[in-house]
Amino acid sequence: MVADGFTITRAIQSRSWPASSANLEYAAAWGTLSPVADDVPRVADDIEVRRISTLLEPVGRAEGNPIRLNENSGIAFQGCIVLGMGFVLDITEAQEWLAADPRNAEVLFPYLNGEDVNSRPDASASRWVIDFNDWTEDRARTFDFPYQRVNASVRPERQRKKANGEFVLRKPLPQRWWHYADKRPALRKAIANLDEVLVIARVSKSVMPVRVPTGQVMSEACVVFASDDGSAQAVLSSNLHQIWAITYGSGMRNDPRYTPSDVFETFPRPEPTDCLEQIGRILDEERREIMMRRDLGLTRLYNLVNDSELADSADQDVARLRAIHVELDWRVLDAYDWSDIALGHGFHTHRRMQRWTVSSAARIEILNRLLEENHRRSEEEQRSKRGLTATEIPKEDGTLFA
Predict the structure, then answer these.
(1) 3-state class (DSSP) for residue 212
(2) Could you tell me which of 309, 307, 202 has the C-alpha nearest to residue 256?
(3) What confidence tens digit (pLDDT) does each residue in 237-259 have?
(4) Dist. CA 71–CA 268, nearest whole Å
(5) Euclidean distance between CA atoms 373 and 266, whole angstroms
(6) Which residue ranges make up each domain of the chain?
(7) 394 pLDDT tier (thresholds 50, 70, 90)
Protein backbone atom coordinates (compact mmCIF):
# COMPACT_ATOMS: atom_id res chain seq x y z
CA MET A 1 0.00 0.00 0.00
CA VAL A 2 2.77 2.43 0.91
CA ALA A 3 4.45 1.69 -2.42
CA ASP A 4 1.19 2.77 -4.09
CA GLY A 5 1.18 6.14 -2.32
CA PHE A 6 -0.55 5.34 0.96
CA THR A 7 0.69 7.53 3.85
CA ILE A 8 0.44 6.16 7.39
CA THR A 9 -0.66 8.93 9.73
CA ARG A 10 -1.34 6.94 12.91
CA ALA A 11 -0.23 3.52 14.07
CA ILE A 12 -0.55 1.08 16.96
CA GLN A 13 2.06 -1.67 16.91
CA SER A 14 0.52 -3.97 19.49
CA ARG A 15 -2.48 -3.81 21.75
CA SER A 16 -4.73 -6.34 23.48
CA TRP A 17 -8.03 -7.12 21.79
CA PRO A 18 -10.73 -5.32 23.81
CA ALA A 19 -12.99 -8.36 24.23
CA SER A 20 -11.95 -10.41 27.27
CA SER A 21 -13.15 -13.58 25.54
CA ALA A 22 -10.33 -13.35 22.97
CA ASN A 23 -6.68 -13.63 24.04
CA LEU A 24 -5.37 -11.74 21.02
CA GLU A 25 -3.01 -8.92 20.11
CA TYR A 26 -3.69 -6.59 17.21
CA ALA A 27 -1.91 -3.89 15.23
CA ALA A 28 -3.67 -0.98 13.53
CA ALA A 29 -2.79 1.71 11.03
CA TRP A 30 -4.62 4.77 9.75
CA GLY A 31 -3.69 6.72 6.66
CA THR A 32 -4.67 8.19 3.34
CA LEU A 33 -3.88 8.03 -0.36
CA SER A 34 -4.17 11.80 -0.51
CA PRO A 35 -1.00 13.93 -0.27
CA VAL A 36 0.07 14.72 3.30
CA ALA A 37 2.34 17.69 3.97
CA ASP A 38 5.65 16.98 5.69
CA ASP A 39 4.79 19.27 8.59
CA VAL A 40 1.58 17.37 9.42
CA PRO A 41 2.33 15.33 12.59
CA ARG A 42 1.95 11.58 12.64
CA VAL A 43 1.31 9.55 15.80
CA ALA A 44 2.98 6.18 16.50
CA ASP A 45 1.91 4.51 19.74
CA ASP A 46 0.73 7.86 21.11
CA ILE A 47 4.07 9.55 20.31
CA GLU A 48 4.17 12.39 17.79
CA VAL A 49 6.70 11.59 15.05
CA ARG A 50 7.74 12.88 11.62
CA ARG A 51 6.78 9.78 9.65
CA ILE A 52 5.78 6.15 10.22
CA SER A 53 7.36 3.14 8.51
CA THR A 54 5.73 -0.04 7.26
CA LEU A 55 6.94 -1.63 10.52
CA LEU A 56 4.72 0.95 12.25
CA GLU A 57 7.88 2.47 13.72
CA PRO A 58 8.85 6.16 13.64
CA VAL A 59 10.92 7.01 10.56
CA GLY A 60 13.90 9.25 11.09
CA ARG A 61 16.65 10.40 8.79
CA ALA A 62 17.44 6.93 7.44
CA GLU A 63 14.88 5.15 5.31
CA GLY A 64 14.52 1.57 4.19
CA ASN A 65 15.27 -1.73 5.84
CA PRO A 66 18.58 -2.91 7.31
CA ILE A 67 20.84 -5.00 5.09
CA ARG A 68 22.74 -8.11 6.09
CA LEU A 69 26.43 -7.38 6.58
CA ASN A 70 29.18 -9.76 5.49
CA GLU A 71 31.17 -8.83 8.59
CA ASN A 72 28.52 -10.55 10.73
CA SER A 73 28.33 -13.82 8.84
CA GLY A 74 29.43 -17.04 10.50
CA ILE A 75 28.97 -15.77 14.07
CA ALA A 76 25.32 -16.27 15.11
CA PHE A 77 23.55 -19.58 14.59
CA GLN A 78 20.26 -21.22 15.45
CA GLY A 79 20.86 -24.40 17.44
CA CYS A 80 20.33 -27.98 16.28
CA ILE A 81 16.95 -29.22 15.08
CA VAL A 82 16.75 -32.69 16.64
CA LEU A 83 13.32 -33.81 15.35
CA GLY A 84 12.56 -36.78 17.54
CA MET A 85 11.87 -36.92 21.27
CA GLY A 86 13.46 -40.37 21.28
CA PHE A 87 16.83 -38.62 21.21
CA VAL A 88 16.08 -36.86 24.51
CA LEU A 89 16.82 -38.28 27.98
CA ASP A 90 16.26 -37.05 31.50
CA ILE A 91 19.37 -36.45 33.58
CA THR A 92 18.93 -39.58 35.71
CA GLU A 93 18.69 -41.91 32.72
CA ALA A 94 21.70 -40.27 31.07
CA GLN A 95 23.78 -40.77 34.23
CA GLU A 96 22.72 -44.42 34.41
CA TRP A 97 23.80 -44.99 30.81
CA LEU A 98 27.14 -43.30 31.45
CA ALA A 99 27.71 -45.47 34.51
CA ALA A 100 26.79 -48.62 32.58
CA ASP A 101 29.19 -47.81 29.73
CA PRO A 102 31.59 -44.85 29.92
CA ARG A 103 31.87 -44.94 26.10
CA ASN A 104 28.37 -43.46 25.99
CA ALA A 105 29.98 -40.12 26.88
CA GLU A 106 30.88 -39.94 23.19
CA VAL A 107 27.21 -39.67 22.21
CA LEU A 108 25.42 -38.28 25.30
CA PHE A 109 25.42 -34.53 25.95
CA PRO A 110 23.54 -31.93 27.98
CA TYR A 111 20.68 -30.56 25.85
CA LEU A 112 20.20 -26.83 26.33
CA ASN A 113 16.90 -25.24 25.26
CA GLY A 114 15.41 -21.77 25.46
CA GLU A 115 13.48 -22.47 28.64
CA ASP A 116 16.71 -23.50 30.36
CA VAL A 117 18.37 -20.24 29.29
CA ASN A 118 15.43 -18.14 30.46
CA SER A 119 14.50 -19.89 33.70
CA ARG A 120 17.44 -21.76 35.27
CA PRO A 121 19.73 -19.67 37.52
CA ASP A 122 22.87 -21.27 36.09
CA ALA A 123 21.46 -21.54 32.54
CA SER A 124 22.25 -25.25 32.62
CA ALA A 125 20.55 -27.96 30.59
CA SER A 126 17.65 -29.74 32.29
CA ARG A 127 17.84 -32.76 29.95
CA TRP A 128 20.38 -34.74 27.95
CA VAL A 129 20.35 -35.85 24.32
CA ILE A 130 21.78 -38.57 22.09
CA ASP A 131 23.92 -37.15 19.29
CA PHE A 132 25.39 -39.36 16.57
CA ASN A 133 26.31 -36.25 14.55
CA ASP A 134 27.06 -37.32 10.94
CA TRP A 135 28.16 -40.86 11.80
CA THR A 136 27.32 -43.95 9.75
CA GLU A 137 24.67 -46.29 11.11
CA ASP A 138 27.31 -48.98 11.66
CA ARG A 139 29.27 -46.67 13.95
CA ALA A 140 26.12 -45.55 15.81
CA ARG A 141 25.13 -49.20 16.32
CA THR A 142 28.24 -49.79 18.46
CA PHE A 143 26.62 -47.70 21.22
CA ASP A 144 24.07 -50.18 22.49
CA PHE A 145 21.59 -48.25 24.67
CA PRO A 146 21.62 -45.01 22.62
CA TYR A 147 21.20 -46.83 19.31
CA GLN A 148 18.42 -49.05 20.61
CA ARG A 149 16.55 -46.02 21.97
CA VAL A 150 16.73 -44.09 18.70
CA ASN A 151 15.92 -47.18 16.64
CA ALA A 152 12.82 -47.89 18.73
CA SER A 153 11.56 -44.34 19.28
CA VAL A 154 12.78 -42.17 16.40
CA ARG A 155 12.89 -44.52 13.43
CA PRO A 156 9.14 -45.36 13.37
CA GLU A 157 8.25 -41.66 13.49
CA ARG A 158 10.75 -40.71 10.80
CA GLN A 159 9.68 -43.54 8.49
CA ARG A 160 5.92 -42.97 8.54
CA LYS A 161 4.37 -43.49 5.10
CA LYS A 162 1.50 -42.07 3.11
CA ALA A 163 -1.23 -44.22 1.61
CA ASN A 164 0.74 -44.41 -1.64
CA GLY A 165 3.78 -45.84 0.14
CA GLU A 166 5.90 -42.70 0.02
CA PHE A 167 7.53 -41.37 3.16
CA VAL A 168 5.70 -38.54 4.92
CA LEU A 169 8.92 -36.69 5.72
CA ARG A 170 11.32 -35.24 3.19
CA LYS A 171 14.52 -36.95 2.18
CA PRO A 172 16.92 -37.73 3.93
CA LEU A 173 15.01 -37.70 7.25
CA PRO A 174 13.55 -41.23 6.84
CA GLN A 175 16.75 -42.69 5.39
CA ARG A 176 19.06 -41.18 8.05
CA TRP A 177 16.74 -41.48 10.99
CA TRP A 178 19.63 -41.63 13.53
CA HIS A 179 20.76 -38.13 12.45
CA TYR A 180 19.25 -34.84 13.57
CA ALA A 181 17.06 -33.01 11.08
CA ASP A 182 19.70 -30.26 11.11
CA LYS A 183 23.03 -30.98 12.78
CA ARG A 184 24.28 -27.38 12.28
CA PRO A 185 27.76 -28.29 10.99
CA ALA A 186 28.70 -24.62 10.57
CA LEU A 187 27.86 -23.97 14.23
CA ARG A 188 29.88 -26.97 15.37
CA LYS A 189 32.88 -25.81 13.35
CA ALA A 190 32.62 -22.20 14.56
CA ILE A 191 32.67 -23.14 18.26
CA ALA A 192 35.03 -26.11 18.06
CA ASN A 193 37.93 -24.26 19.71
CA LEU A 194 35.88 -22.36 22.30
CA ASP A 195 35.25 -23.37 25.90
CA GLU A 196 32.32 -20.95 26.29
CA VAL A 197 29.85 -19.22 23.99
CA LEU A 198 27.09 -16.64 24.34
CA VAL A 199 23.48 -17.77 23.96
CA ILE A 200 20.14 -15.96 23.70
CA ALA A 201 16.84 -17.83 23.83
CA ARG A 202 15.08 -17.32 20.48
CA VAL A 203 11.91 -16.32 22.33
CA SER A 204 12.90 -14.18 25.27
CA LYS A 205 11.33 -11.40 27.27
CA SER A 206 14.75 -10.17 28.41
CA VAL A 207 16.59 -10.47 25.06
CA MET A 208 19.72 -10.97 27.14
CA PRO A 209 22.71 -13.23 26.36
CA VAL A 210 24.22 -15.62 28.88
CA ARG A 211 27.60 -17.33 28.89
CA VAL A 212 27.42 -21.14 28.74
CA PRO A 213 29.99 -23.93 28.26
CA THR A 214 30.42 -25.71 24.97
CA GLY A 215 30.42 -29.51 24.99
CA GLN A 216 26.63 -29.60 24.94
CA VAL A 217 23.94 -29.60 22.26
CA MET A 218 22.08 -26.30 21.94
CA SER A 219 18.54 -26.74 20.60
CA GLU A 220 16.85 -24.74 17.85
CA ALA A 221 15.25 -22.65 20.61
CA CYS A 222 18.69 -21.09 21.23
CA VAL A 223 20.67 -18.57 19.22
CA VAL A 224 24.37 -19.31 19.68
CA PHE A 225 27.10 -16.70 19.18
CA ALA A 226 30.55 -18.09 18.39
CA SER A 227 32.29 -15.75 20.80
CA ASP A 228 33.46 -15.90 24.40
CA ASP A 229 34.76 -12.36 24.92
CA GLY A 230 33.33 -9.81 27.30
CA SER A 231 33.18 -7.09 24.67
CA ALA A 232 30.71 -9.12 22.61
CA GLN A 233 28.66 -9.83 25.73
CA ALA A 234 28.52 -6.12 26.53
CA VAL A 235 27.31 -5.17 23.06
CA LEU A 236 24.70 -7.95 22.94
CA SER A 237 23.51 -6.96 26.45
CA SER A 238 23.15 -3.27 25.60
CA ASN A 239 19.91 -1.42 25.08
CA LEU A 240 21.17 -0.54 21.61
CA HIS A 241 21.17 -4.19 20.61
CA GLN A 242 17.92 -4.87 22.47
CA ILE A 243 16.15 -2.02 20.67
CA TRP A 244 17.40 -3.34 17.34
CA ALA A 245 16.28 -6.88 18.17
CA ILE A 246 12.80 -5.79 19.24
CA THR A 247 12.40 -3.63 16.13
CA TYR A 248 13.67 -6.03 13.48
CA GLY A 249 12.98 -9.41 15.05
CA SER A 250 9.56 -10.97 15.01
CA GLY A 251 7.39 -11.29 18.08
CA MET A 252 5.30 -13.73 20.06
CA ARG A 253 2.95 -11.55 22.05
CA ASN A 254 5.21 -9.46 24.31
CA ASP A 255 8.17 -11.84 24.05
CA PRO A 256 10.43 -10.83 21.16
CA ARG A 257 11.65 -13.57 18.82
CA TYR A 258 15.33 -13.30 17.95
CA THR A 259 16.09 -14.12 14.31
CA PRO A 260 19.84 -14.20 13.58
CA SER A 261 19.48 -13.29 9.90
CA ASP A 262 17.23 -10.29 10.56
CA VAL A 263 18.72 -9.08 13.84
CA PHE A 264 22.37 -10.00 14.34
CA GLU A 265 23.49 -10.18 10.72
CA THR A 266 22.20 -6.65 10.12
CA PHE A 267 23.43 -5.16 13.40
CA PRO A 268 26.42 -2.81 12.87
CA ARG A 269 28.59 -3.79 15.83
CA PRO A 270 31.16 -1.40 17.29
CA GLU A 271 34.83 -2.35 17.49
CA PRO A 272 35.79 -4.24 20.68
CA THR A 273 37.40 -2.12 23.40
CA ASP A 274 38.99 -2.80 26.77
CA CYS A 275 36.16 -0.85 28.41
CA LEU A 276 33.55 -3.07 26.77
CA GLU A 277 35.47 -6.20 27.77
CA GLN A 278 35.56 -5.02 31.37
CA ILE A 279 31.89 -4.07 31.69
CA GLY A 280 30.80 -7.25 29.90
CA ARG A 281 32.69 -9.35 32.44
CA ILE A 282 31.34 -7.30 35.35
CA LEU A 283 27.76 -7.83 34.18
CA ASP A 284 28.30 -11.56 33.69
CA GLU A 285 29.99 -12.17 37.05
CA GLU A 286 27.78 -10.00 39.25
CA ARG A 287 24.54 -11.09 37.61
CA ARG A 288 25.54 -14.75 37.85
CA GLU A 289 26.20 -14.36 41.59
CA ILE A 290 22.81 -12.70 42.14
CA MET A 291 20.96 -15.34 40.14
CA MET A 292 22.56 -18.24 41.99
CA ARG A 293 22.20 -16.68 45.43
CA ARG A 294 18.54 -15.80 44.90
CA ASP A 295 17.60 -18.79 42.72
CA LEU A 296 16.40 -16.57 39.88
CA GLY A 297 16.46 -17.22 36.15
CA LEU A 298 16.95 -14.46 33.59
CA THR A 299 13.25 -13.81 33.06
CA ARG A 300 12.40 -13.51 36.75
CA LEU A 301 15.46 -11.39 37.43
CA TYR A 302 14.75 -8.91 34.64
CA ASN A 303 11.09 -8.78 35.63
CA LEU A 304 12.43 -7.24 38.85
CA VAL A 305 14.81 -4.92 36.99
CA ASN A 306 11.92 -3.72 34.81
CA ASP A 307 9.44 -3.32 37.70
CA SER A 308 8.75 0.39 38.16
CA GLU A 309 7.22 -0.28 41.58
CA LEU A 310 10.47 -1.78 42.88
CA ALA A 311 12.62 1.13 44.05
CA ASP A 312 16.40 0.93 44.11
CA SER A 313 16.28 1.43 47.87
CA ALA A 314 14.12 -1.69 48.26
CA ASP A 315 16.46 -4.10 46.46
CA GLN A 316 20.21 -3.52 46.32
CA ASP A 317 20.77 -6.30 43.78
CA VAL A 318 18.28 -4.80 41.36
CA ALA A 319 19.72 -1.33 41.91
CA ARG A 320 23.19 -2.66 41.13
CA LEU A 321 22.04 -4.34 37.91
CA ARG A 322 20.28 -1.19 36.75
CA ALA A 323 23.45 0.80 37.41
CA ILE A 324 25.58 -1.72 35.51
CA HIS A 325 23.28 -1.53 32.50
CA VAL A 326 23.41 2.27 32.51
CA GLU A 327 27.22 2.17 32.59
CA LEU A 328 27.25 -0.54 29.93
CA ASP A 329 25.05 1.49 27.57
CA TRP A 330 27.30 4.52 27.93
CA ARG A 331 30.39 2.46 27.16
CA VAL A 332 28.74 1.02 24.06
CA LEU A 333 27.79 4.54 22.97
CA ASP A 334 31.41 5.61 23.47
CA ALA A 335 32.54 2.72 21.27
CA TYR A 336 30.35 4.15 18.49
CA ASP A 337 31.48 7.72 19.35
CA TRP A 338 27.82 8.63 19.96
CA SER A 339 28.14 10.01 23.48
CA ASP A 340 26.12 13.09 22.45
CA ILE A 341 22.88 11.07 22.72
CA ALA A 342 20.99 11.76 25.96
CA LEU A 343 19.93 8.26 27.00
CA GLY A 344 17.42 9.17 29.71
CA HIS A 345 17.40 5.79 31.44
CA GLY A 346 14.23 5.03 33.33
CA PHE A 347 11.02 3.06 33.05
CA HIS A 348 9.71 3.45 29.52
CA THR A 349 7.05 1.54 27.60
CA HIS A 350 7.44 0.40 23.99
CA ARG A 351 5.23 -2.14 22.21
CA ARG A 352 3.34 -2.61 25.47
CA MET A 353 6.52 -3.72 27.24
CA GLN A 354 7.68 -1.67 30.20
CA ARG A 355 11.42 -1.86 30.69
CA TRP A 356 14.29 -0.18 32.48
CA THR A 357 15.64 1.29 29.28
CA VAL A 358 16.42 4.48 27.39
CA SER A 359 13.84 7.17 26.65
CA SER A 360 11.62 7.13 23.56
CA ALA A 361 13.59 10.01 22.05
CA ALA A 362 16.87 8.15 22.62
CA ARG A 363 15.41 4.95 21.18
CA ILE A 364 14.37 6.70 17.98
CA GLU A 365 17.76 8.42 17.62
CA ILE A 366 19.64 5.16 18.29
CA LEU A 367 17.59 3.34 15.65
CA ASN A 368 18.30 6.17 13.22
CA ARG A 369 22.03 6.02 13.74
CA LEU A 370 22.22 2.25 13.69
CA LEU A 371 20.28 2.11 10.42
CA GLU A 372 22.47 4.82 8.92
CA GLU A 373 25.56 2.91 10.01
CA ASN A 374 24.15 -0.34 8.61
CA HIS A 375 23.58 1.30 5.24
CA ARG A 376 27.03 2.92 5.29
CA ARG A 377 28.76 -0.38 5.99
CA SER A 378 26.69 -2.19 3.39
CA GLU A 379 27.71 0.38 0.78
CA GLU A 380 31.36 -0.06 1.79
CA GLU A 381 31.05 -3.81 1.39
CA GLN A 382 29.50 -3.40 -2.05
CA ARG A 383 32.24 -0.98 -3.10
CA SER A 384 34.84 -3.43 -1.85
CA LYS A 385 33.28 -6.18 -3.98
CA ARG A 386 33.52 -3.91 -7.01
CA GLY A 387 37.07 -2.88 -6.14
CA LEU A 388 38.61 -5.03 -8.89
CA THR A 389 37.15 -4.86 -12.38
CA ALA A 390 36.97 -7.91 -14.61
CA THR A 391 40.26 -6.83 -16.29
CA GLU A 392 42.00 -6.43 -12.93
CA ILE A 393 41.36 -9.83 -11.35
CA PRO A 394 44.75 -11.43 -10.50
CA LYS A 395 45.74 -14.58 -12.33
CA GLU A 396 47.23 -17.50 -10.43
CA ASP A 397 50.69 -16.40 -11.62
CA GLY A 398 50.16 -12.98 -10.04
CA THR A 399 49.60 -11.04 -13.26
CA LEU A 400 46.36 -9.36 -14.28
CA PHE A 401 44.01 -10.24 -17.08
CA ALA A 402 44.61 -7.97 -20.02
Answers:
(1) strand
(2) 202
(3) 999 999 999 999 987 556 799 99
(4) 9
(5) 10
(6) 2-59, 76-225, 228-385
(7) very low
